[in-house]
Amino acid sequence: MDEFFVDSVQHSFDGRPVLNNVYLKCGVGEVVGVLGRNGCGKSTLLKIIFGTISPHYKHLRIDDKIVSKGFLTGEFAYLSQSFFIPHYLKLGVVVKLYTNKYQNLLLKLPVFRDNLNEKIGSLSGGYRRLAETLLMIYSDAKYVLLDEPFSQLSPFLIEEIKTNINLMLSYKGFVITDHYYQHVLNYASRTILLHNGCNYNINNLDDLRLHGYLPSMLH
Ligand SMILES: Nc1ncnc2c1ncn2[C@@H]1O[C@H](COP(=O)(O)OP(=O)(O)OP(=O)(O)O)[C@@H](O)[C@H]1O
């Protein structure tokens, strides 16, 4: 079965509960959206799946195998909220470091094709974010966890990210957190909301109002 799931996720920081019995599933061909107010634990959940936070409890299965940390399997890529590739590396070098199987596809995209000799730090903030996101989308990983891939990006670049995810969707599953809730809701195959440490299935804006993510007067 080409999917991963994590359930019974429980985690506290300094005795303060953040996640309490959270469940998330994502299969190849799916984009799963994760919404939630600031500080509700979206990044924590992605880091727990990836393996850089060890929670108090979780049960993680990838393709029917129980695993302790996602990154140890080589099947996960994780885009953090902040820039993570050293600014002095040239795009031509970065492509070789982060991609293999899908490298040729990535090299056809203008931000890489036209800037191979440029340092990634010389790109504008939005294009640097786009480049890092595309590197995760075209990595070898089967499951790609994207923490706020749309923030800082103009509508044109947001569409470029969606287009490239669509191109890889038959090979991969994607989990996306973002505060651009309309983009997430309209684009994801399924969306969950993290609230009070638990997860709720979300189908429309009314569900987001019901669980207090949206003020009741906002459309
Ligand atoms: N290393 C840490 N030590 C202590 N508390 C932490 C740590 N990391 C996160 N937290 C706390 O855990 C809670 C969840 O943080 P997290 O970054 O997962 O939220 P988020 O939903 O991703 O928020 P945002 O939408 O603002 O990015 C917050 O209250 C945060 O302050």
Verbal overview:
With 219 residues, the chain is of the alpha/beta class. The protein has one domain: Rossmann fold (3-Layer(aba) Sandwich). It is built from eight helices and ten strands. The chain has helices at residues 42-50, 91-98, 103-107, 110-113, 125-137, 155-168, 181-187, 205-210; strands at residues 3-13, 16-27, 31-36, 57-62, 65-67, 76-79, 143-147, 173-177, 190-195, 198-202. A six-stranded mixed beta sheet has the order 6-7-8-3-9-10, with helices on both faces. A hairpin with a 2-residue loop joins strand 1 and strand 2 (16-27). It is globular, with a radius of gyration of 17 Å.
Question: Could you name the key traits of this structure?
Answer:
alpha/beta; 219 residues; binds adenosine-5'-triphosphate; single chain; 8 helices; globular; Rossmann fold; 30% helix; six-stranded mixed β-sheet; ATP-binding cassette domain-containing protein
Distance between the termini: 39 Å
Q: Please trace the helix and strand order, writing H or E for each element.
A: EEEHEEEHHHHEHEHEEH
**Structural class by sheet pairing and helices:** alpha/beta
Helix content: 25-40%
Spatial order of strands in the largest sheet: 6-7-8-3-9-10
Ligands, deduplicated:
adenosine-5'-triphosphate
Q: What is the top-level CATH class?
A: Alpha Beta
Mean pLDDT: 95
**How is the CATH topology named?**
Rossmann fold
Poorly predicted regions: none
Number of strands: 10
Domain ABC transporter: 4-218
Keywords: ATP-binding, Nucleotide-binding, Transport
InterPro entries: AAA+_ATPase, ABC_transporter-like_ATP-bd, ABC_Transporter_VariousFunc, P-loop_NTPase
Protein name: ATP-binding cassette domain-containing protein
